[in-house]
Amino acid sequence: MKKGIYLAFDVGGTSIQAGAIDASGRLLEHTLSHYESMANGEADEIFGHFVRTAADVLQKADPDGTEQIAGIGYAFPGPFDYERGISYIRGLNKFEALYGMRVGDRLLCGMRTNSGIADRLQAKPLVRFANDAALFAMGEAHYGQAAMYRRAVCLTLGTGIGSGFVETGRLIRQRDDVPENGWVYHLPYRSSVVDDYVSRRGILELAREMGIKLQGQDVKGLAEAARRGDEDSIRLFDTFGSRMAEAWRRR
């Protein structure tokens, strides 16, 4: 790795997890941060927010201003052209405003006009994108629960469902027994696709179907109620788990 600071962002439809890494690959734990995603904003709002989060992480990593940014990495939901940094997310209730845009180019442009970052960028910083669920799957395959298995399917649940197929520590993106890119969100399920049922909006819609009064609660509130022993909330997550299993059995 080149000398300098590397900024890393795990971008979801609800929140962004961020942190900095030094040139040795060591995570600077004091930089770990949590931000809202602003995924339903206009394009300029989203890019401005991304730039501000980068400036904040950089300030935490190097408040004295002695280091430059050597690279920036984004774990980003799909569909997305990860090689060219172009978003093709549409119809998933997140980042709709970025459709067809060269996200990497827009981000670098914004950073070069931000007073907190502009002078801290190397001449040609690395900007890389990868699928958030795929990176999660690789992490689990090497360091987590999936490491003890030859084959594993790793799922991430949030605004939507992400997925990654791994075998002997390698990500499988294309094979007869694996959906294209290892993505399951768009596969047919019931009257629509998996993402409409196995996701945040899927849980909330299921709660409404079951007659649970949300009263402004989101999934976090429902989960907390289930942990407290609320029978309706427990039944909700039991039913949601059954739906996940049903969707998987149909693959």
TrEMBL record:
Pfam families, per the entry: ROK
InterPro entries found in the cross-reference section: ATPase_NBD, ROK
Source superkingdom: Bacteria
Family as reported in the entry's similarity comment: Belongs to the ROK (NagC/XylR) family.
PANTHER family (UniProt xref): BIFUNCTIONAL UDP-N-ACETYLGLUCOSAMINE 2-EPIMERASE_N-ACETYLMANNOSAMINE KINASE, ROK (REPRESSOR, ORF, KINASE) FAMILY
Protein's recorded name: ROK family protein
Lineage start: Bacteria, Bacillati, Bacillota, Bacilli, Bacillales
